[in-house]
Amino acid sequence: MVLHDDSFRRLLRARDAIHARYAQSLRLQDLAREAALSPFHFLRLFRSAFGETPGSAWCSGRGRVPLQLAPGRVGFMKTSGLFPPRRRCPT
Length: 91
Hints:
The chain is mainly α. The protein has a domain at 5-65: Arc Repressor Mutant, subunit A, CATH 1.10.10. 53% of the residues lie in helices and 0% in strands. The protein contains five helices and no strands. The protein has helices spanning 5-20, 28-34, 39-50, 54-62, 71-74. Helix 2 (28-34) crosses helix 3. Residues 67-71 have low confidence and may be disordered.
């Protein structure tokens, strides 16, 4: 599937939103609105462009811990108090 530049820019904006808000729960409708697409077309184009669904991208982003939040660097011995409970991500 060939994406137009404008469509790809919209998808990049939504992907950036996923990575910027990885600590929050995001809805497909909100991401589709960010990309100015219907949820169906957003999901189809996102999977085609990036090879994964928005949910998979969100789950992979949740695994990244910013360096400044590493527990030893801020005086915590455990990370359990630093992060909100995680939604179960499909494997």
